[in-house]
Design a protein that fits this description.
The protein is an alpha/beta fold. It has six helices and five strands. It has helices at residues 16-31, 52-63, 79-97, 114-123, 158-167, 196-216, and strands at 3-8, 36-41, 100-106, 134-140, 176-181. It has a five-stranded parallel beta sheet, sandwiched between helices. α2 (52-63) crosses α3. The protein is globular and about 60 Å long. The model has no long low-confidence stretch (mean pLDDT 97).
């Protein structure tokens, strides 16, 4: 039975990243009628930031060369560490059970929301591999940050997630898909109003690719 873990990070309920992510998920469900769709809204139910006890768990795992997530529980030795593990365990279990991880995220201040970063920090341990899983990132940006645009050097959203997934979780490029909507601020910012057509085309293309991607997973 295939499992999709679907993460939403936008602070907006009617958001463009959620719209694109929902299109991926709907197509995936149609292609996997017996599949399990697990959804976690990181904005509505924020994950706490890691604390000192979490760092102690991480240090123990690293010091003792523990690379099997099934053994991470061995690092728990104090009451504070028990409390830290109680936060980690359900998040990590959802991640490890997933065949596909769908991350729907806006770009905030050139990067990802703090809500998504908090989730990443909680589920990440030394030398942890997620090879074999597919990752889809459905994003939205206020401006245009694609290759060849003046603002491409400021894209620390896709670049960060690609580098992190490859560098820490050993996920190859072929198991990552990034798709999304550009220039969403053209709907509200008078300075970008002349680029509304570009946004509309970007949105339509993103939704089409989202449906195709979800069906092919």
């Amino acid at each position: 039975m295939s499992t999709l873990l679907h993460l939403d990070a936008s602070a907006r309920r009617p958001s463009f990243s959620r719209e694109v992510g929902d299109a991926v998920a709907a197509a995936w469900r149609a292609s996997h009628p017996g599949g399990v769709h697990v959804r976690r809204d990181l904005a509505a139910a924020p994950v706490p930031h890691i604390d000192e006890a979490w760092t102690e768990l991480c240090d123990h795992v690293l010091e003792h060369g523990i690379t099997d997530p099934a053994r991470y529980r061995e690092a728990v030795r104090t009451r504070a560490q028990e409390e830290a593990w109680a936060v980690v365990e359900p998040l990590l279990s959802e991640l490890l059970a997933a065949d596909v991880v769908l991350i729907a995220t806006p770009m905030y201040n050139y990067s990802i929301p703090a809500s998504l970063k908090a989730w990443i920090d909680q589920v990440t341990f030394p030398r942890m591999s997620l090879t074999g899983r597919r990752f889809v990132v459905a994003h939205a940006r206020g401006g245009a940050y694609g290759p060849g645009t003046p603002r491409h050097p400021y894209d620390h959203q896709e670049r960060y997630l690609r580098d992190f997934l490859t560098g820490h979780f050993a996920v190859p490029d072929e198991d990552m898909t990034f798709l999304g909507t550009e220039l969403v601020n053209s709907r509200t910012d008078p300075a970008l109003a002349g680029r509304r057509g570009e946004h509309d085309r970007s949105r339509a293309a993103a939704l089409e690719l989202a449906r195709a991607t979800g069906a092919a997973l």
